Amino acid sequence: MPTQRFRHPAGAFEITSLPGQPQVAICHSFFVRETDRGRGKSHEIKAQQRHTLQSLQYDYAVCTVSGNNHAQKAVLSQGGWKKLTEFYNHRNAEFTETWGTTP
Predict the structure, then answer these.
(1) CB-hemisphere CA count at 13 Å for 77?
(2) Where are the beta strands (DSSP E) in the chain?
(3) What's the pLDDT tens digit per position in 57-95?
(4) Is the pTM of this model over 0.90?
(5) pLDDT band at 1 (very low <50, low <70, confident <90, very high)
(6) Edge-to-edge strand order for the sheet containing 94-101?
(7) Residue 31 banded pLDDT, cuts 50, 70, 90
């Protein structure tokens, strides 16, 4: 499946199938508009993302998040995602975490 972008009134997210393993989704480009931050909209968008993953019949999903993005990590954790690993990202000189979930 090519990358698909999904809209929510407060933001958006994208889903791409992992090459060679189409039952695994790569979730990326998740964002919440600045005017909607701190109002629980991340949880709404993440719930829409889970529903979309289920409707597209994915078996597993992965995403990355900046190690210092505590708000997004809380949203992931509350949404049932689990931290898989972390690595030092030389591109932005900080740690990046990989998270996964079964939709």
Answers:
(1) 8
(2) 4-8, 11-18, 21-32, 60-66, 82-89, 94-101
(3) 999 999 999 999 999 999 999 999 999 999 999 999 999
(4) yes
(5) confident
(6) 4-8, 11-18, 21-32, 60-66, 94-101, 82-89
(7) very high
What b/e readout covers 2-16, taking b as 16+ CB neighbours within 10 angstroms? eeeebebebbbbbbe
Cβ contacts of 76 within 8 Å, gap of 6 or more = 46, 63, 65, 83, 99
Distance from C-alpha of 27 to C-alpha of 29, rounded to nearest angstrom: 7
- What pLDDT sits at residue 5? 97
CATH numeric code, 4-101? 3.40.630.30
Question: Using an 8 Å Cβ cutoff, are 30 and 45 in contact?
Answer: yes
